[in-house]
Amino acid sequence: MYYRPIGVLEEPVIESKPAYDGHIQTTKFQKFLLGMGSGILALTNPKRGDMVALMGESTGECSLKYMQSCMSNDPTGRRILADQPRINSATVDLDELAKLPEGTLGHEYIRFLNENGIHPDDRLPVEFVDDPSLAYVMTRYREIHDLVHLLCGMPTNMLGEVVVKVVEGLQTRLPMCVLGGLGGPIRLGPKHRNIYFTTHFPFAVQTGLKAKSFFNVYFEEEWETDLEELRNRLNIPKIPQTPKLKNVHKT
Amino acid sequence: MALRRVLRSSLGFRRYSTHFGYETVSENEKGQRVGEVFSNVAEYYDLMNDAMSGGIHRVWKDYFVNKMSPRSDTRLLDVAGGTGDIAFRCLRHMKNSALPDEHQSGEIIVCDINAEMLKVGEKRAKQDGLELKWVQGNAEELPFPENSFDVYSIAYGIRNVTRIQKALEEAFRVLKVGGRFMCLEFSDVQNPIINDVYDWYSFNIIPVTGKLLSGDWKSYQYLVESIRQFPKADDFKNMIEEAGFQEVHYEKLMFGVSAIHSGFKLK
């Protein structure tokens, strides 16, 4: 027994063995506290990526189930759920991808990573999701996040992140994405907010509603596909230009 | 829990295994894992202390140092003193209680097994312009000769030591005759209602706060479990007497959440 009941406030027993490596067991009340706390901290200090991640994990159970069912209804999605492929430096040969011809998904992905100073190993492991298969869905969500950025043509500054959050929110129904999409614009300066509401937000909504789910894309098999062709196949509308702005809040 | 304890003592495991929070681990492992905990939390240690105790730990430490009442000629060893909370208070007390023109012959040495914690303490000392000695060492095997200190203090450190009795014996060794052992540590709450509230707070709020503020759940889970594994105030008093100390007394603070144990080396 991991926890003992404490009066009426504590929930009864939870499983004594962690469900997967790195799993931290928590009660519903603790998940609630973590969700609230991380939401506030993420909004007030967007640099705390771990708080954004935590918010997703502690509030995302229903959404993860929805995503899992979406994936189960698609043949490629089913394969992904069965194979549980991972995207990190151990599973993907980043050097090989860089050598692919320009315009391919693999080549553009590496270019995107280098331009924005990010790396697939930066993703935090999932800790608070209790079901191991849902934990994989969450992991997959994190690992394809950069690819979603690439497909939507959005940079990793605050403006781009908010757009991607809106797209992801519509595709995944994760409360963290929805709230990030709603709350994020508050942190944008007036110029960027203007750009956001005139071109980027409509684009995000259209993409979120019309595009095919990114969770059913077996990216590992698409490295050599032409990026534009992939975007067309996924019904992503025309991508608005994000002008290079000074002082755009970097996440 | 009870079953584990029965198994451990009946199978003779008591001598060879110890606890890391609620996990039973080998003695070597405990030292290493405690080390990891404190390397992880060093940076946030002071912030988390304030957040978890609502600032009350400051009151406890002030009271502890007041009780100790170090003088300007006291030689003090503060063990597991990492970030310097006790040492800084003692230094200020010594400065304030010195007569004008009195030569300061006292000395404070802060000893901690963890280099990260010492670094945080040294940084704080520089910021405040205080002069102290910082030595890395193990409470079970202190790098000091016998009979060298007037006071040995250990605040919120002894529960992390693998072999507590050994640490107590070391304390006895390095103290001069007439020297005082003082320990401030979490203790047992006897009142059942307050204990329930305290437990609820410990298990629900503390690891959550740790995760939110410092991104580390596991270290703070360890913290609340290690408090419950530590001997009760009376048992600890017996352990101190076993190490050779006399006139051993304890005083509970805030219903037993913390307690100050004190003993003297009279022979």
UniProtKB/TrEMBL annotation, chain A:
HAMAP family: Coq4. This is Ubiquinone biosynthesis protein COQ4 homolog, mitochondrial. Its main location: mitochondrion. It catalyses: a 4-hydroxy-3-methoxy-5-(all-trans-polyprenyl)benzoate + H(+) = a 2-methoxy-6-(all-trans-polyprenyl)phenol + CO2. It is found in: Mitochondrion inner membrane. Zn(2+) binds at residues 145-146, 149, 161. Keywords: Lyase, Membrane, Metal-binding, Mitochondrion, Mitochondrion inner membrane, Ubiquinone biosynthesis, Zinc. It is a peripheral membrane protein. Belongs to the COQ4 family. It comes from Dimorphilus gyrociliatus. Its cofactor is Zn(2+). Pathway: Cofactor biosynthesis; ubiquinone biosynthesis. Component of a multi-subunit COQ enzyme complex. Lyase that catalyzes the C1-decarboxylation of 4-hydroxy-3-methoxy-5-(all-trans-polyprenyl)benzoic acid into 2-methoxy-6-(all-trans-polyprenyl)phenol during ubiquinone biosynthesis. GO terms for molecular function: 4-hydroxy-3-methoxy-5-polyprenylbenzoate decarboxylase activity; zinc ion binding. The keyword Mitochondrion applies. GO terms for cellular component: extrinsic component of mitochondrial inner membrane. Its EC number is 4.1.1.130. InterPro entries: Coq4, Coq4_euk.
From TrEMBL, chain B:
Keywords: Membrane, Methyltransferase, Mitochondrion, Mitochondrion inner membrane, S-adenosyl-L-methionine, Transferase, Ubiquinone biosynthesis. It is found in: Mitochondrion inner membrane. Its EC number is 2.1.1.201. S-adenosyl-L-methionine binds at residues 83, 112, 138-139. Pathway: Cofactor biosynthesis; ubiquinone biosynthesis. Pfam families: Ubie_methyltran. One of its GO terms (cellular component) is extrinsic component of mitochondrial inner membrane. It catalyses: a 2-methoxy-6-(all-trans-polyprenyl)benzene-1,4-diol + S-adenosyl-L-methionine = a 5-methoxy-2-methyl-3-(all-trans-polyprenyl)benzene-1,4-diol + S-adenosyl-L-homocysteine + H(+). One of its GO terms (biological process) is methylation. Methyltransferase required for the conversion of 2-polyprenyl-6-methoxy-1,4-benzoquinol (DDMQH2) to 2-polyprenyl-3-methyl-6-methoxy-1,4-benzoquinol (DMQH2). This is 2-methoxy-6-polyprenyl-1,4-benzoquinol methylase, mitochondrial. It comes from Dimorphilus gyrociliatus. The lineage of its organism: Eukaryota, Metazoa, Spiralia, Lophotrochozoa, Annelida.
